Amino acid sequence: MADYTGCKCPVCQQPFTEKDDVVVCPECGAPYHRDCYQKNAGCLFADRHGAGFEWKPAPGEMPNRDASAAGSEISCPACGAMNPAGGLFCESCGAPLRTGGPRYAPGSGPAASGPASYGPDTAPQYDPYAGARQTAPGQLHPEDDLGGVKARDWAAFLGPNAGYYLMNFKRMTVTGQKLAVSFSAFFFGPFYFFYRKMWLPAAIFLTLDVFGAYIPQLLQFLVLAESPLVAGLNLDVFSTVLNVLRVVNLAVQFTEGLFAVYWYRRIGEKRIARVLQSCSPAEAPAALAKEGGVSLAALIVSLSVVLGLYIMLSFMALAPLMAAPMAGLAV
């Protein structure tokens, strides 16, 4: 790790000691006491960052490095933090450490909203862009504009499987296309939308499923069981209607599977914009994660409601068939 002992904090001008909590500006590399950095609301040299300013220690204040660790560590190209030589991503900001791989511009890594920290309490950070880099290396940057929303904000909002959505949003932004294959939406329909907190599409497609699939299936079962409830039903007309509903239901499935990602993007854009307008930049990541992500509770509740409705309708339909034998026994 870099040792700034003896260097002076630009804010308070007090030399750093071995026990000080030192943070480093991700743009220019200037070290600060954490309290000083927060009190100053950022780097003291922020107005010079655009000109490519790089902090240099005063003569006699050269930071030292532990000689025993010098050969086993490499410096992050984005934030300057020291990392194990065998690492692939920076433990402080998540940026790639290898020159051959995709890189963040200085200060633009996932942790650029706050200073990189050094010390025993420094913990590895989750890298929401790793999946996207594996899918198409070098094609996605945290500052990329995806439908009016930065990729970094999308990553905080999306939660699980962010890489898949990020790369599809990137492709949609570049090509203007709206189609993207989602097998989850195709096979699970409204339950996928409930899981991803898309309430309006979830309600619409659940209604279509109930009247276009569940109820027709129940009626078909009653016809086969020769239930008195469908005694006057014209079987030819019913068969035709049933075939039409099957085609419509299949078309709905394909629509869900091909447009779910696009709808998710449009809904997400509005929610992210609302969140960013209502909170500070420091609060944004947590607020976006809460607003977005997935809801296992919504998935379980929706499945339970549909299953309960189907059981209730089945019981009501079968009740007359069950009552007839009981009446015969009573006689």
UniProtKB/TrEMBL annotation:
The keyword Acetylation does not apply. Keywords: Membrane, Metal-binding, Transmembrane, Transmembrane helix, Zinc, Zinc-finger. The chain crosses the membrane at residues 179-195, 202-224, 244-264, 296-319. It holds the Pfam family Prok-RING_1. One of its GO terms (molecular function) is zinc ion binding. InterPro entries: DUF2628 (IPR024399), RING_finger_1_prok (IPR039522), Zinc_finger_PHD-type_CS (IPR019786), Znf_RING/FYVE/PHD (IPR013083). Signal peptide: none annotated. Coiled coil: none annotated. This is DUF2628 domain-containing protein. It comes from Candidatus Allofournierella pullicola. The lineage of its organism: Bacteria, Bacillati, Bacillota, Clostridia, Eubacteriales.
